[in-house]
Specification:
heterodimer, A: 539 residues, alpha/beta, 6-stranded mixed sheet, 20 helices, 20 strands, globular, B: 323 residues, 2 strands, 76% helix, MetI-like_sf (chain B), ABC transporter permease (chain B), BPD_transp_1_N (chain B)
């Protein structure tokens, strides 16, 4: 590259506190951000990618220390700036967009006020001009009905609208550099596609240098000009998008790329001949929020005439965007919540007709693995207790249950010594294995996995998916697999049901669904999956 | 919003009715015959006089009818007659209410103002000696019994230093008018108001501090910094405003109890308010007066709760009036 970089990070070293696992969060990283170019910094959690982003804004947490290195911007080393110097740069020279637009906006301030603050912070324009500018920014980022939006509070906007508002804010002062820290991770896939396009367009029209932090190779493929792969705070590979995707040099990059699930489902034998493990007939569920005495109730239909079945040994995927009702259906099937209407049969038992003791006696047959490996394990109980609670409640002798827990830990790839430890001593992937062991301890016939791999890094995700497949085959389990990630669904599901606003709009064998989607919403979802146009197709 | 207020008022009336019914039966649970007690206290014990009293207070009628008469009285703001004070209960309370409201609202204002200020300072300088000094003194005020603080401040400011009057609402026989009267009452107000105020101040200080430290870590504060905003604007506009939400909740809970909660302070400082009226009614077994004070205090709690809800909805746009 011959162009002058807008920002140069040179040999940046950020020290972690002494108690940390490694001495440096960022270890000798150098990155040039060039006007008109998007650099994607990719890596798994803990790779130091967010630290790099925060260092550019002088927003590093107090616990870490910049040891050596320079961040050169407009002829000065930003790392030498004092607080007031930083304030000049922030927003005006370098602006930032954060991951979670809900929490990144002040809930008590109107969107417009928060945009106008940008000008106020740098003493620009009169209040009236600021308002006009906020309005035009809202228009520029494609917010519908901008007059209303700038008067709205964050909670009144959708996730995509909030992120657009964040972007509008970041661009208010026409910075030459934009730092985007996982800006689409919290969004639905169709919204993500729109936001990526927006960032691309704005970056081109303003000739900005963009540093885009992400863990998602699909997103990288769609947006990056250049890629920097980080691992344990060090750059392991760097190059143009084509070079890195077509011809990755470092083993780690290769492994990461290989771990991205492919959009091409493998061939799977039909299981239609098998007996039905679960049969769901006409499930209805409407959530009613009381509107008070003088206002009508608010109703959200989470399940509308939901009908499907799962054959023995089959995995049925439930895909859809947030709010489509897929988690509600999972809970209805497990009878964790009550349906307004409809039947759930497990084998030849009508689960919806049972009550009290009879219901509890059947519960072990269908078990759940949850999304958040941190929140789904009681932090005050040892792993042994967590796994044996269910079996002991069913009347298993505690000693027998403990022995079985030991075996199960081996089965999910953890050592038996884990029994005496607490959940916080395990990594995210290990905790998800604990969650699987806990579910298996009940000798279930059916596993309901609710976004069970969504919170995991791609390499860990691949391992957990493989484990689930192995266990399923070995123990003859059936599975209801809920996910928003169509790549994952393609790899693990025999059939997929697409949900939109409480309705299953399409239900087909996986390969058929991907090859010839019929419903417009299915097509929209499939089209929005990032990374399909990449040089190597991300796999 | 109007429908919300109307709805809350209707609900409040029902709650108040329930409280009145409960209070009514409460007095019937007390051992002995109220008429006999009243007669005994009046120094007469012949059966005829007691019967007269029963008739006068409708005690000879069946319980449901008595309840009906009492509720009817309350609805028309007739809270009965205080035998001991020889005055209608409503009039007694109406005389005392302004003094109590003056005391408690002043104390409330002081506690909020100082509590939020000190809490903000402590959070701003968290971990320094200033923070330690503030939190330790807050703990001290919180842990010390109110009456002891009251007695000690009388000793210090009235007896030794002679700066402030030690009791009452105004100088007896002072007959001040205009600004001199205001000043006289204000001087009398200082100690009792501070005594109550300091206790509540301590809770607000600690709450504000904890809440601010929590909010400081949230993402939108980072967004604010990324805009290049000055620190004092970030602290005020982004941190403090969000941190005040739990303080408003706590203050709401406190505000309801302020009317009846000043019993100790009013007694120690001989403040002529509802609290002392309640204390006297208790000592003298003045049942009608006791009941009347309960009803008024309950009504105050309901009113303050409504006000808190309205304030909360004003400061937090996420709460809608309908829900």
């Amino acid at each position: 590259m011959t162009a002058t970089p807008a920002v140069s990070i040179k040999n940046l070293k950020i020290a972690l506190p002494k108690s940390a696992e490694r001495p440096y969060a960022v270890d000798g990283v150098s990155i040039d951000l060039i006007p008109g170019e998007i650099v994607c910094v990719v890596g798994e959690s803990g790779s130091g990618k967010s630290m790099c982003a925060h260092a550019l804004m002088g927003l590093l947490p107090d616990t870490v220390k910049t040891e050596t290195g320079e961040v050169l911007f407009e002829g000065q080393n930003l790392l030498k700036l004092d607080e007031s110097g930083w304030r000049e740069v922030r927003g005006r020279g370098i602006a930032m967009v954060f991951q979670e637009p809900m929490t990144a906006l002040n809930p008590l301030m109107r969107i417009g006020e928060q945009m106008m603050e940008m000008f106020e912070a740098h003493n620009l324009l009169t209040p009236k001009e600021r308002r006009a500018k906020a309005l035009s920014l809202a228009k520029e980022v494609g917010l519908p009905d901008p007059e209303r939006i700038i008067r709205a509070y964050p909670h009144q906007l959708s996730g995509g609208q909030r992120q657009r508002a964040m972007i509008a804010m970041a661009l208010a002062l026409e910075p030459s550099v934009l730092v985007a820290d996982e800006p689409t991770t919290a969004l639905d896939v169709t919204t993500q596609a729109q936001i990526l396009k927006l960032i691309r367009n704005l970056q081109r029209s303003r000739n900005m240098a963009v540093m885009f932090i992400t863990h998602d190779f699909g997103v990288v493929a769609d947006i990056a000009d250049r890629v920097v792969v980080l691992r344990h705070g060090k750059i392991v590979e760097e190059g143009s998008i084509d070079a890195v995707f077509r011809n990755p040099q470092h083993d780690y990059t290769k492994a990461l790329l290989a771990a991205v699930p492919s959009m091409h489902p493998p061939v799977r034998a039909s299981l239609d001949e098998n007996a039905k493990a679960v049969e769901v007939i006409g499930l209805d569920k409407t959530y009613v929020t009381s509107g008070g005495w003088f206002k009508p109730d608010r109703r959200v239909q989470a399940a509308n005439e939901v009908t499907f079945s799962i054959m023995q040994g089959e995995t049925v995927g439930l895909v859809g965007e947030s709010g489509s009702g897929k988690s509600s259906v999972a809970r209805l099937v497990m009878r964790l919540i009550e349906a307004d209407r409809g039947t759930v049969r497990i084998g030849d038992i009508d689960l919806t007709a049972l009550e009290g003791k009879a219901l509890r006696a059947q519960r072990h047959r269908i078990q759940m693995i949850f999304q958040d490996p941190f929140a789904s394990l009681n932090p005050r109980r040892r792993v042994g207790q967590i796994i044996t609670d269910g079996p002991i409640a069913r009347g298993t002798d505690p000693k027998v249950a403990m022995q079985r827990a030991r075996d199960l830990l081996g089965m999910v790839g953890l050592d038996a010594g884990s029994l005496d430890r607490y959940p916080h001593e395990f990594s995210g992937g290990q905790r998800q294995r604990l969650g699987i062991a806990r579910a298996l301890a009940m000798d279930p016939e059916i596993i309901v996995a609710d976004e069970a791999v969504s919170a995991l890094d791609v390499s860990v995700q691949a391992q957990v998916l493989k484990l689930l497949e192995d266990l399923k085959a070995r123990l003859g389990l059936s599975m209801l697999f809920i996910t928003h990630d169509l790549r994952v669904a393609a790899q693990i599901c025999d059939r997929i049901a697409v949900m939109q606003r409480g309705v299953i709009v399409e239900l087909k064998p996986t390969a058929q669904l991907f090859a010839s989607p019929e419903h417009p919403y299915t097509r929209e979802l499939l089209g929005a999956v990032p990374g399909q146009s990449s040089p190597s197709q991300a796999a | 919003m109007l429908s919300f207020v109307a709805q809350r008022i209707v609900k409040g009336v029902f709650v108040l009715l329930a409280i009145i019914v409960m209070n009514f039966f409460l007095i019937r649970l007390a051992p002995g015959d109220p008429a006999a007690v009243m007669a005994g206290e009046a120094g007469a014990s012949d059966e005829q006089f007691v019967q007269q009293l029963r008739e006068k207070f409708s005690l000879d009628k069946p319980l449901p009818e008595q309840l009906f008469i009492y509720v009817k009285g309350v609805v028309t703001l007739d809270l009965g007659f205080s035998f001991r004070q020889q005055m209608p209960v409503a009039k007694l309370i109406a005389e005392r209410l302004p003094a109590t409201l003056l005391l408690t609202l002043t104390a409330f204002g002081i506690s909020l103002l100082l509590g939020i200020t000190f809490g903000t300072l402590a959070a701003r300088f968290a971990g320094t000696w200033a923070d330690t000094a503030i939190t330790v003194s807050a703990l001290l005020f919180y842990a010390t019994p109110i009456f002891w603080v009251a007695l000690m401040s009388i000793l210090l400011f009235s007896v030794y230093l002679g700066w402030l009057p030690s009791f009452g609402y105004e100088t007896v026989g002072g007959n001040f008018t205009g600004w001199a009267h205001v000043k006289d009452v204000a001087l009398h107000l200082v100690m009792p108001a501070m005594t109550i105020g300091l206790f509540f101040m301590a809770t607000y200080t600690r709450m504000t501090r904890a809440s601010m430290l929590e909010v400081k870590r949230l993402d939108f504060v980072k967004t604010a910094r990324a805009k290049g905003l000055r620190d004092n604007i970030i602290q005020r506009r982004h941190v403090l405003r969000n941190a005040l939400l739990p303080v408003v909740t706590l203050a709401g809970v406190h505000s309801g109890t302020l009317v009846g909660g000043a019993v100790l302070t009013e007694t120690v400082f001989a403040w002529p308010g509802i609290g002392r009226l309640l204390y006297e009614a208790l000592l003298q077994r003045d049942y009608n007066l006791l009941l009347g004070v309960f009803v008024v205090c309950s009504a105050m709690v309901l009113i303050f709760n409504l006000v808190t809800d309205l304030v909360y909805r004003l400061v937090d746009p996420r709460i809608e009036f309908a829900s």
